[in-house]
């Protein structure tokens, strides 16, 4: 993060004597470590104490582990095999123990000689290998090992402290080899330039950076580790928050046209027609948005709210306020289905207020146009003309809005729906269509814990809608273990028939489409690992499931399919029939995940639910229970009860609180996944900072960063911080910090 010349040396050069080119290559390819600085920032995952052995009883299956233990006994067996038919085959079995459990090590063939000599009963060593099961016993086959004798010069030097660092390692490079490499470059830590301003560091009682690096790699006490981690967490939180604060600062310098609604204009006319009153939450968030719209700098606001909390209504009122003030508003949706759905619901909510320039339109009306890639040429030409002349006050569309041909008369507000599906370039391209930077409102129905919002969306002000409007029904969720209890699945289909018999409708969601393109893509993309794919059948597919249901348990019901590769007109026709109640059961992929609003749909069956993420399941479930009748969501899985996937589903079934689920989701995933690959390599800089646990550090770092940037936006007096920022944000990453 704070790479300076001494730390920028490639690993191949200074480490020839220790690593050699082959090991440096493994470090680069498997751990992403290229320079001395990278290696110094590759921190130990945990520490073993000499007097305290690892819990062998808790070893995870199929994982590459490092353990410290003592040899209990070692036996050499000879056996006959195809390679050694005369009984000359050799197998060394070594049992190691730590008091909590025992573990078998096995070595074969010529590989038995050295361990037979080294691993005598009573010897203590570090062992690394992949945990497997043989004859119902845990074992490590041919583990790498490092004796902890403490007599040779090198061993005394490498393991001088009582605490042994265990590094994140790979099958190709054991923890202690990384440890030895770190020891070699550790003197360079003294040249690390400190990114924290001295006043901040001293005021918070944090170690200087060189000292923190020395202590995290060679601690003498647990207090050393705690002090070092506290300091390094601050580095990560602070440098990231400074980057975001600089972006907020730069955005605040941009000019924008203030957009204030007329006293008796379109917004007032719309509010007067609403058949219900806004919730307190909707009123509060609207006030925040209107206050931003009235300023001379562009609004940058994130609106997050549960599925069905009324975000679209809040966004529509903001768009109407901008139209009132003489501007235009554009809403960007990630899919055509969603763009059409938004267009339909906005025009329905507005009624004749959406008929500007038409017979029957009222005095304050404006035109609401839809723009998608699949529109016919004539409709498209008319939509483009209405945008260019200003006839259309509101446009709703997909990425087709971003094309060069699209010109606005006066773009005043951009609303981006489901931000996580858009790249930065797309959003910036739309913002670039305003004569001055338009105001920006980003919406998401994926609840984001406060710290993640501060870390990922740190340059946006955040508004939260956490109340559901009156009249929304509760949703009951249950896990259906199809493999353990097949009769539960049969009962699930009966429940769907019961809902339909009561005049309601149902969704069945599958992970895959199931046509040939789908199959080929699946094969090409591959799964998480070859072992996984060998064991798992392909995910259930819409086309297969729809066919089986129509001929089997749902025979006689009107079943239709919906997926992303259908022609847009066909998709729209299917959605219209479903919305009109002409279809009983819609078998679909996740195209229904956001925005689809059919109040009469009360049941959802999610097949292979374990193939979806926690947030995605929560989003999908939000499609039912949108009317006055209670909703039902059934999560079908073949995963065994003890599996992590099954526990995840149980968590989803046990709560409707999206913020609680997003915390569970985060705790089960690595930080890097949480912050998303779209966040670019900048996010891989989070090595010790945990966005859930370190809420306080992130909040304080944000406060300090804002103050530092306000006083010195160009970091003229803080060269160390500027160096750290440059390392975090090369040009490409700078762009990605705009929430890719």
What does this protein look like?
With about 750 residues, the protein is α/β, with parallel strands linked by helices. The protein contains 27 helices and 21 strands. Strands 11-12-10-13-14-9-15 form a 7-stranded parallel beta sheet, sandwiched between helices. The longest helix is centred in the first third of the chain and has 32 residues, at about 220-255. It is globular, with a radius of gyration of 30 Å. Helix 9 (about 265-275) packs antiparallel against helix 11, helix 10 (about 280-295) packs parallel to helix 11 (about 310-325) and helix 15 runs parallel beside helix 25 (about 695-710). Strand 5 (about 125-135) and strand 6 form a beta hairpin. The two termini are about 20 Å apart.
Please sum up the structure shown:
With 740 residues, the protein is α/β, with parallel strands linked by helices. The chain is globular.
């Amino acid at each position: 993060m704070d790479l300076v010349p001494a730390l920028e040396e490639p690993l191949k050069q200074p480490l020839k004597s220790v690593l050699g080119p082959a090991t440096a290559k493994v470090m680069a390819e498997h751990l992403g470590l290229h320079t001395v600085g990278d290696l110094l920032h590759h921190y130990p995952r945990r520490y073993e104490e000499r007097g305290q052995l690892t819990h062998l009883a808790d070893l995870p299956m199929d994982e590459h582990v490092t353990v410290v233990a003592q040899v209990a006994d070692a036996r050499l067996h000879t056996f006959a095999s195809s390679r050694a038919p005369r009984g000359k085959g050799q197998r060394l079995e070594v049992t190691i123990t730590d008091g909590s459990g025992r573990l078998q090590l096995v070595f074969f063939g010529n590989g038995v000689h050295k361990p037979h000599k080294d691993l005598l009963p009573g010897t203590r060593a570090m062992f690394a290998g992949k945990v497997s099961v043989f004859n119902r016993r845990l074992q490590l086959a041919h583990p790498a090992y490092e004796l902890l004798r403490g007599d040779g010069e090198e061993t005394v030097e490498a393991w001088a402290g009582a605490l042994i660092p265990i590094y994140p390692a790979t099958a190709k490079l054991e923890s202690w080899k990384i440890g030895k490499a770190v020891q070699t470059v550790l003197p360079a830590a003294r040249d690390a330039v400190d990114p924290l301003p001295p006043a901040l560091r001293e005021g918070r009682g944090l170690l200087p950076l060189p000292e923190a690096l020395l202590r995290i790699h060679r601690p003498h006490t647990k207090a050393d580790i705690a002090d070092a981690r506290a300091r390094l967490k601050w580095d990560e939180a602070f440098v990231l928050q400074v980057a975001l604060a600089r972006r907020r600062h730069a955005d605040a310098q941009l000019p924008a046209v203030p957009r204030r609604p007329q006293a008796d204009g379109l917004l007032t006319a719309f509010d007067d027609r609403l058949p219900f009153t806004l919730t307190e939450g909707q009123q509060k968030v609207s006030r925040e948005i209107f206050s931003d719209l009235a300023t001379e700098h562009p609004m940058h606001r994130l609106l997050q709210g549960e599925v069905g909390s009324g975000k679209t209504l809040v966004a529509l009122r903001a768009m109407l306020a901008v139209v009132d003030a003489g501007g235009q508003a554009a809403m960007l949706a990630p899919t055509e289905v969603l763009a059409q759905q938004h267009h339909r619901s906005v025009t329905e909510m507005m009624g004749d207020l959406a008929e500007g320039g038409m017979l029957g339109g009222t005095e304050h009306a404006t035109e609401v146009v839809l723009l998608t890639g699949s529109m016919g040429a004539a409709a498209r030409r008319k939509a483009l003309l209405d945008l260019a002349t200003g006839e259309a006050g509101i446009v709703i569309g997909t990425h087709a809005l971003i094309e060069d041909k699209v010109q606005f008369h006066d773009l005043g507000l951009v609303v981006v729906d489901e931000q996580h599906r858009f790249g930065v370039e797309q959003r910036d391209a739309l913002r670039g269509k305003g004569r001055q930077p338009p105001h920006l409102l980003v919406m998401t129905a994926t609840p984001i814990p406060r710290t993640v919002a501060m870390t990922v969306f740190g340059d946006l002000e955040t508004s939260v809608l956490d109340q559901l409007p009156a009249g929304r029904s509760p949703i009951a969720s249950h896990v259906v273990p199809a493999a353990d209890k097949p009769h539960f699945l049969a009962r699930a289909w009966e429940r769907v028939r019961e809902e339909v018999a009561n005049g309601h409708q149902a969704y069945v969601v599958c992970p895959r489409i199931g046509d040939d393109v789908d199959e080929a893509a699946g094969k090409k993309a591959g799964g998480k690992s070859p072992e996984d794919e060998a064991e798992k059948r392909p995910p259930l597919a819409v086309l297969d499931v729809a066919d089986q249901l129509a001929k089997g348990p749902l025979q006689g019901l009107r079943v239709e399919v919906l997926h992303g590769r259908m022609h847009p007109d066909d998709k729209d026709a299917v959605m219209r029939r479903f919305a009109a109640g002409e279809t009983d059961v819609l078998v679909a992929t996740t195209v229904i995940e956001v925005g689809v609003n059919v109040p009469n749909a009360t049941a959802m069956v999610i097949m292979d639910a374990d193939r979806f993420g926690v947030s995605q399941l929560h989003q999908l479930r939000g499609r039912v229970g949108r009317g006055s009748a209670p909703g039902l969501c059934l999560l079908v899985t073949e995963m065994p009860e003890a599996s992590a996937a099954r526990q995840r589903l149980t968590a989803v079934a046990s709560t409707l609180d999206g913020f609680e689920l997003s915390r569970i989701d985060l705790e089960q995933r690595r930080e890097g996944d949480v912050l998303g690959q779209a966040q670019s390599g900048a996010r891989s800089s989070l090595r010790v900072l945990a966005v859930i646990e370190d809420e306080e550090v992130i909040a304080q770092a944000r406060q300090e960063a804002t103050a530092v940037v306000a006083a010195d936006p160009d970091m003229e007096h803080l060269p160390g911080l500027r160096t750290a920022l440059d390392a975090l944000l090369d040009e490409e990453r700078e762009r990605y910090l705009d929430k890719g």
